[in-house]
Amino acid sequence: MTDTSQPADITPDREKWLTPGVKGIGSASFLADVGHEIPTALLPSLLTSTLGAPAAALGAIEGISDALAGAARFGGGVLADDPSRRRKVAVGGYATTAVLGAATAGATAVWQVGLLRTAAWTARGLRVPARNALLADIVPAKAYGRAYGFERMMDNLGAIFGPLLALALVAWLGVQWAIGLSVIPGLLAAAAIVYAIRKTPHPTGRDKVPLKIRVKPVLTGDLGKLIAAVAAFEVGNVAATLLILRASELLTPEHGTRTATTIALGLYTAYIVAATIASVPAGRLSDRLGRGGPVLVLAG
Fold first, then answer.
1. Cα(first)–Cα(last) distance of the chain, in Å?
2. 208 exposed, middle or buried (CB, 10 Å; 0-12, 13-18, 19+)?
3. What percent of the chain shows pLDDT beyond 90?
4. Is the pTM here over 0.90, yes or no?
5. Among 17, 52, 131, 145, which residue has the least CB neighbours within 10 Å?
6. CA of 297: how far to CAs of 26, 145, 291, in Å?
7. pLDDT for position 210
């Protein structure tokens, strides 16, 4: 008699990886992106039209915000190494980003916009490693590409819906009210990450991991080369808000300010649609290509 059973540790390739925890993290990314894409899409209009600031102010605010967000990710990674800390940082990061981003609506001076924007982006940077570590907790290594591709797809879907919602809110209530209402999806994102955490297996008992920044191990070997390549790309990566502003400036003479802003946001939405369509297929491809797959897909 032939035994056709499989050992318990062998799972089919179509193993279920899209668990409630993964869906919760994906929902958090979607809602968070809806929340922060509204102020992002409207930031050029708020600064230049409402507050009368020059384009250079937008560039400075975005540059400083991105720099602090990057530094915060490094610190957030240290916190995310501890399972209990990463849960608190994830929830706090989502809630803080939502509140600070929406508070930009009440700013009456350019420096206030800069302060709130940089603080919100710092909180966003802190939460990213915690979210990524939570996702790694609940999916097998061979499904990382699909799981992270799904999370990126949900994030990009939020980036599509956010500007579209911003357009509707601006037409109905105006720029500042639209930015203020962005707190609602942002706080819903925090609730979604709480749900995801509840669906994530609790870490086994262990001592607290001491907070210690180790730079040398990160910069050596293949990881250091990868970080250098990504850093080189980011040096030339233009902030989306500057692209929106540039498109608006080019379109305004022919179409007027209001229509130019609408078209520019439409172009930005198309830009995000392309990223959304590519996310899951790219993740699947990286899984199929084996160990070197992620690097090949990233380089491509």
1. 51
2. exposed
3. 22
4. no
5. 52
6. 21, 10, 11
7. 63
**pLDDT, tens only, 124-178:** 999 999 898 888 888 887 888 888 888 988 988 888 888 888 888 887 888 889 8
Residue 179 token pair: 């930015």
Please state the three-class secondary structure of the chain as a single string. CCCCCCCCCCCCCCCCCCCHHHHHHHHHHHHHHHHHHHHHHHHHHHHHHHCCCCHHHHHHHHHHHHHHHHHHHHHHHHHHCCHHHHHHHHHHHHHHHHHHHHHHHHCCCHHHHHHHHHHHHHHHHHHHHHHHHHHHHHCCHHHHHHHHHHHHHHHHHHHHHHHHHHHHHHHHHCHHHHHHHCHHHHHHHHHHHHHHHHCCCCCCCCCCCCCCCCCHHHHCHHHHHHHHHHHHHHHCCCCHHHHHHHHHHHHHHHHCHHHHHHHHHHHHHHHHHHHHHHHHHHHHHHHHCHHHHHHHHHHC
Segments of the chain scoring below 70 in pLDDT: 1-15, 202-215, 217-218
